[in-house]
Amino acid sequence: MKVHEYQAKEIFKARGIPVQDQAVISDAGEAAAAAKRLGGKVVVKAQVLVGGRGKAGGVKLAADPGEAEQHARAILGMDIKGERVEKVMIAPTADILKEYYVGLIMDRASKKIVLMVTKEGGVDIEELAVSDPDKIIKFPIDIATGLDAPPVRKDLEGILTEVFGKPALVAQALETVGKLYALFVEKDASLVEINPYALVDENTLLALDAKINFDDNALYKHDDLEAMKNPEEYSQDEIDAKAYGLSFVSMDGEIGCIVNGAGLAMATMDIVKLYGGDPANFLDVGGSSNPEKVLQAIRIILRNPKVKAILINIFGGITRCDDIARGIIMATDQIEIKVPLVIRLVGTNEEEGRKLLEAKGFVVGSDLSEAVQNVVAQR
């Protein structure tokens, strides 16, 4: 789950990480008053969940409240990478002496949280990682020990001294990193970053921008984060799929896929591509033997006008093939399905499921390659 910059800054502020005052508006008529309250000279920033705001014209400096209102009117309603700007954040401008970058990510390969810091803040960190990776210092943190162990603390201070130099700045950065780490762990984040982490006078560092991503699978533990969820991040299909216990991601192809198990779903999409097709979605019905889930999966996929055929690929373990078959039959009874259904059933109660479907006139296969070639041919 992503949050807007203003939301990330609110979280930072609540944890004592230095940020500027800000105002968030959705009506351009409120911009002048907000800018005046914040000192007159401000920056107006589009609040969207995608990058590239600045290049798209979604970040503007205003010399006075009147100009702030002009910029707000221009930015509100703007389309940035397919997202309509519904809100802008207004904050005081800052006299930046130097820009740094501080971020934390989860490295699944090492099973550690990795701190990344660099003196080259204010730029796209992904581009810097490609063009000049040596400028980014990476510091792996063992989740079992965290930052409190004296040897870890000493090494961290050494890295921050290399980047920030002055003891006063190192002390601030050390405190901020500690608070970012606590936030990362306590709130099940997958990314926390400040870019730029700016030097605004000789002895003061401020988080002038903020980005946080959270693990969707952990939101049930955090009602405060659930309340911050932004509807524009999720399509209606994804929202409905979640409500029915389905793992669903929209894609751009023409072959709808209904599969049990995330690994098999990924493999199925790969095989669809191998035989010249393009998946329209990732959809994992999970391990539940609930016919209703199959019905809703088919209903969600058929909303997509690009879908030309549907592949149902079930390898039954906990999932029973006869329950999947009942869900398919429920769908055909309740929904007008105008695209071909190609069905592959293997595993628990396979014969029972096959008999149910064949009695309704379906052809049921057992070979995955044949099923995929069949659905690709019918798109």
Structural notes for this entry:
The chain contains 13 helices and 18 strands. It starts with a helix and ends with a helix. It folds into three domains: 21-92, Dna Ligase, domain 1 (2-Layer Sandwich), CATH 3.30.1490.20; 98-227, D-amino Acid Aminotransferase, Chain A, domain 1 (2-Layer Sandwich); 236-378, 3-Layer(aba) Sandwich (Rossmann fold). The protein has helices at 5-14, 31-37, 65-75, 125-131, 150-164, 167-186, 223-226, 236-243, 262-274, 291-302, 321-334, 350-359, 368-377, and strands spanning 23-25, 42-46, 59-62, 79-80, 83-84, 88-92, 98-107, 112-118, 137-141, 189-201, 204-207, 211-214, 247-250, 255-259, 281-284, 309-316, 341-347, 364-365. 37% of the residues lie in helices and 25% in strands. It has 379 residues and is α+β, with helices and mostly antiparallel strands.
Percentage of residues assigned to helices: 25-40%
Look at the helices and sheets and give the structural class: alpha+beta
Global outline: elongated
Q: What's the N-to-C terminus distance? A: 33 Å
Largest sheet: 6 strands, antiparallel
Query: What is the average per-residue confidence, as pLDDT, rounded to a whole number?
Result: 93
The CATH class label of the largest domain is: Alpha Beta
Low-confidence stretches: none
Number of strands: 18
Residues in β-strands, percent: 15-25%
Instruction: Give the CATH topology of the largest domain.
Output: Rossmann fold
Number of helices: 13
CATH architecture of the largest domain: 3-Layer(aba) Sandwich
Q: What's the alpha carbon Rg, rounded to whole Å?
A: 26 Å
Which homologous superfamily in CATH is the superfamily of the largest domain? Answer: Succinyl-CoA synthetase domains
